[in-house]
Amino acid sequence: MSARASLALLALSAVGVGCAPPAVVPPKAPPSPVVVDDGAAFVRSEDTLLRVLARDGRFAARVGLFSEGGAPDDYDPFDGKARAQAIAEALRTFEEATKGSTAPERRAAILTAKAEAARAGLEAELTVYGAELLLALAEAASDSPAAAREAADDATLAERIGDVNDAFSTTKRSLAERREVEDALDPLERLLVRRGGGARYAKSLSALTKLRETTGEARALGDAPLPDPRPRPLDAALVVVGEELRPDEVLATLGAAERTLEGLAKAKLAELGEKTATSVTSDAGRRLALRASCKVSIPTSTLRSAAASPEREAGCLAVRELAFAKTPAEEASALVALHDRVAVALWAAAFHTSRETLGAVRGRVHLLATTDDRTRDALLRRATLTPALALGSGLVAALVGASAEGTKERATLLQRYGDAPIVMLRDAVKASSPK
Q1: What radius of gyration do the chain's Cα atoms show?
Q2: 395: closest CA among 243, 197, 187?
Q3: Which secondary-structure segment (H or E) carries 131?
Q4: What is the reported pLDDT for 74?
Q5: What is the pLDDT of residue 435?
């Protein structure tokens, strides 16, 4: 069975569960202009939309949807405008074709497409997202050993590295932006070395060295003091994570959840004794900077079975930790992780919504995990530069911390639900709450 056929059957089962079969239309009846819960038609439309989104290898890997031969030859992760336009056209077609469908997957697909289009717009800022785009471009490069193809891949990647270098060279960017890109270049360099190093990527590695020189701290601080990161509207970031609350509502939601989770975590740590509590917070601190895939298989849904988006990933892992906690120490560890994801999101919301200084943001709320200065600085830096990454995980965690009662039950529900836009996760929690 082909991958397309398998995907169609999987999604078709999602639409069919809990729904009556399509009514049989008499031969002489006029055709309905609206598709109403037609499972086969829906899955075809969803498949078409998802394959447009899957032109980006990052999305394809997360959803497990690959076209034959990988990404199209004309795909360029740096061309966010073209990507956003393609998504908008595919989304219009999908909405029209499925406008009579009541499947929850329709809403999920629409919100996911809007999130990917918003992501494409944000990534136009090369001084923030340049390194991530370079990594995506390198990962999309062909594994073909053909000399001509290798040379073309090397030349293209070197040119794009030059574009990121130019973005830093032509404007005085903040030290936070320079450090963030420097850190993000490490996995790119490791990938190039693993794929052949200088023998295949001579131009790219040379350009990478120049970019590191441009973003280096010594050169950056050699002139006038660099500006702090600037606050910006959170609208696009909230679309990326699938949140429909206003920024001020997000700030209030995170603040309430942070206080609740702080109280629960501290109470649970106090039950453990000083030695065990210290071990728990130390372990939690070491995991704060780690990344790992978080997914659950949902037979009735393609999108909910996908690995959590980068923005919701850390929150998903913290929720899973509480859902599967068996001992008081494991429960305390999970509550610390949930609290700290909300805290980092609160940094992001406060900085961009309340226009607070970096110092004020850091002092507003403290992490419970034991971390070193470098880890805390990196988390604060990402909260200010890439707020979607902080907000997504924090808002997932905030759903668990919506009240002091039922945290374990909400974590279990969310873990079983799978990945989804924040607004849909919130609706699932509300639907399960006692009336």
Answers
A1: 23
A2: 243
A3: helix 126-140
A4: 60
A5: 64
H or E stretch covering 92: helix 80-97
As a whole number of angstroms, the distance between CA 83 and CA 122 comes to 12
Determine the Cα–Cα distance for residues 58 and 65; give it in Å rounded to an integer.
10
The boundaries of the domain holding residue 109 are 3-15+36-122
The closest of 243, 33, 11, 9 to 104, measured between CA atoms, is 11
Sign for the CA dihedral angle at 130, 318, 365, 356 comes to positive
Last residue of a domain, one of 220, 249, 277: 220
Neighbour count for residue 235 (Cβ, 10 Å): 11
Q: What angle do CA 61, 64, 66 make, to 5 degrees?
A: 80
82 lies in the same domain as 105:
yes
Instruction: Give the CB-side neighbour count of residue 103, counting CA atoms within 13 A.
Output: 33
Residue type, 9: L
Q: 371 in helix, strand or coil?
A: coil
- Give the chain's end-to-end CA distance (angstroms, integer): 45
* C-alpha–C-alpha distance, residues 204 and 211, integer Å: 10
**Crossing angle (nearest 10°) for helices 126-140 and 147-170:** 180
Q: Are 106 and 79 in contact (CB under 8 A)?
A: no
Asked if 120 and 87 touch (Cβ cutoff 8 Å), the reply is: yes
Pull the structure tokens for residue 376.
Answer: 């805390």
Can you say whether residue 355 is alpha, beta or left, with left for phi > 0 and alpha for psi between -120 and 50 degrees?
left
Rounded Cα–Cα distance for residues 283 and 290 (Å): 11
- Listed as ranges, residues in the chain with pLDDT below 50 are 1-36, 68-70, 218-226
Give pLDDT, residue 144.
59
Q: How far apart are CA 62 and CA 319, in angstroms?
A: 19
Question: How many structural domains compose the chain?
Answer: 3
Tell me how far apart the alpha carbons of residues 346 and 340 are, in angstroms, rounded to a whole number.
9
Residue 321 maps to a domain: yes
Q: What is the pLDDT at residue 219?
A: 45
Q: Taking CA 429 as the corner, what is the angle to CA 427 and CA 433, rounded to the nearest 5 degrees?
A: 115
The DSSP result for 291-348, as a single string, is --------TT-TTTTSPPPTTTHHHHHHHHHHHT--SHHHHHHHHHHHHHHHHHHHHH
Residues 133 and 206 in one domain: yes
**3-class secondary structure, 157:** helix
Q: What is the pLDDT of residue 38?
A: 60
Q: What token pair was written down for 318? A: 């913290």
